[in-house]
């Protein structure tokens, strides 16, 4: 049973670099261009929205946010969903990739809010099928930091803001306890595909998407080298096998020739030849007697 892969990363600025990678306006080295046409957007954009970057901005502008958004405030969270390479290939070969995509998108929308999931692109032109989703971290309710703050005696109290007001807050979405919850709930959703959660509390560390791709590229390169080595070994073994077959055939031919001269067939022929000689001698003797009687 393989493992689910779920990576979350805060985007920087307008995240143009990630958009270029996801939308293939810049083609990565580890992607097969002959398969890029198999990639597809799993979520429709609103009217007049053409791409991921515009979809992020459209959601922010239409979420009812009243508070000013800071220049360096996180506007989007990138979510990468996949599974162990062998298991994703199994899912794809079994014709279940569309169902896997639908369940993954449904989990995203139920977890982060349907309106907040502004893009989800399936990539099939890389070694392992995976989804790049984009979540705009719009939340409601009391700020996490406010909940954790203890009231200080004597400090002036201000009127609390409406907790139902929409806020842009990546920290609330990326809180440690929530990250653990995402891993748990996504793994439960993926059990039907033979995927399970990674070992909780293990020493394995979360890596960012770039590092994940880097390691995946290295593993793929090593795998290709191993395949080439195995193919060479197979070729050498096939040549050796052909030689052995030729030797076996030669030995069989020698045995056949040997049987021809020394085997049971040869002895039978010799016996028949001896009988014929006796018969001929008998006939010659009889013929000689008949000639003498005539004279």
From TrEMBL:
InterPro entries: Mob_Pre. Gene3D superfamilies: 3.30.930.30. GO terms for molecular function: DNA binding. Residues 213-293 form a coiled coil. Keywords: Coiled coil. It holds the Pfam family Mob_Pre. One of its GO terms (biological process) is DNA recombination. NCBIfam families: MobV. This is Plasmid recombination enzyme. It comes from termite gut metagenome.
């Amino acid at each position: 049973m393989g493992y689910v892969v779920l990576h979350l990363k805060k985007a920087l600025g307008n995240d143009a670099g990630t958009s270029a990678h996801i939308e293939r306006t810049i083609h990565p080295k580890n992607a097969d261009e002959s398969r890029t046409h198999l990639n597809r957007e799993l979520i429709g954009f609103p009217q007049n929205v053409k791409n991921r970057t515009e979809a992020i901005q459209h959601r922010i502008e239409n979420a009812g946010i009243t508070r000013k958004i800071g220049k360096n405030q996180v506007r989007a969270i990138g979510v990468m969903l996949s599974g162990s390479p062998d298991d994703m290939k199994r899912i794809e070969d079994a014709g279940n990739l569309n169902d896997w995509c639908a369940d993954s998108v449904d989990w995203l929308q139920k977890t982060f809010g349907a309106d907040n999931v502004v893009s989800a692109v399936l990539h099939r032109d890389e070694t392992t099928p995976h989804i790049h989703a984009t979540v705009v971290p719009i939340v409601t309710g009391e700020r996490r930091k406010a909940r954790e703050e203890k009231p200080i005696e004597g400090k002036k109290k201000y009127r609390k803001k409406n907790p139902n007001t929409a806020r842009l807050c990546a920290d609330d979405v990326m809180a440690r306890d929530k990250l653990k919850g995402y891993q748990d709930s996504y793994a439960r959703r993926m059990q039907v595909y033979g995927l399970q959660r990674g070992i909780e509390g293990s020493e394995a560390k979360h890596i960012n998407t770039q590092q994940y791709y880097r390691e995946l590229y290295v593993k793929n390169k090593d795998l290709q080298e191993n395949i080439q080595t195995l193919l060479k070994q197979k070729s050498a073994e096939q040549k050796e096998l052909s030689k052995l077959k030729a030797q076996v055939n030669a030995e069989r031919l020698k045995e056949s020739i040997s049987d021809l001269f020394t085997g049971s067939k040869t002895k039978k022929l010799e016996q028949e030849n001896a009988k014929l000689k006796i018969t001929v001698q008998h006939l010659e003797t009889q013929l000689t007697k008949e000639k003498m009687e005539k004279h």
